[in-house]
Specification:
By secondary structure, the chain is α+β, with helices and mostly antiparallel strands. It has a 4-stranded mixed sheet, sandwiched between helices. Helix 2 runs antiparallel to helix 4. The chain has one domain. Helix content is about 50%, strand content about 20%.
Length: about 130
């Protein structure tokens, strides 16, 4: 069986990641991921961001892996915000938000990123600030 791949964008803080998700997952990996809850993935993300608050800029592959795991548990989610007050803070101090973003807006943000105009302020203005309202 040839694995079917779905391509999608995922906003992680202020970076639009391009994900390639396999619809058919190898059995061992599927069991490992299915045993994790979304709350456990949120805690994992908190721990990762407590160690590296700029993960989405400094470790793109780890950021993609985290985003892929989130999507595997909550397919409707295509955005996550992890805010750590400082490197080495307690995982409990990392704020987390998940969101479902309109795909047209996500594509627009990806275009902004591709042209070098994507900023944290832009992501906040179009996504995170509006989500708080």
């Amino acid at each position: 069986m040839i694995p079917q791949v779905v391509r999608m964008h995922f906003l992680l803080n202020d970076v639009v990641l391009s994900l390639e998700l396999q619809l058919t997952t190898p059995p061992m990996e599927a069991r490992r991921v299915s045993s994790l809850s979304l709350e456990q993935l949120e805690q994992l993300g908190r721990e990762i961001y407590a160690r590296e608050p700029r993960l989405h800029h400094r470790e793109a592959e780890r950021a993609r892996s985290l985003a892929s795991l989130i999507v595997s548990k909550a397919p409707e989610v295509n955005g996550a915000l992890f805010i750590a007050p400082s490197r080495g803070c307690a995982a409990e101090d990392v704020a987390v938000r998940f969101i479902t973003i309109n795909t047209d807006l996500l594509a627009q943000l990806h275009q902004q990123q591709q042209s070098g105009r994507m900023t944290a302020a832009l992501a906040d203005e179009y996504v995170w600030g509006k989500a708080a309202a």
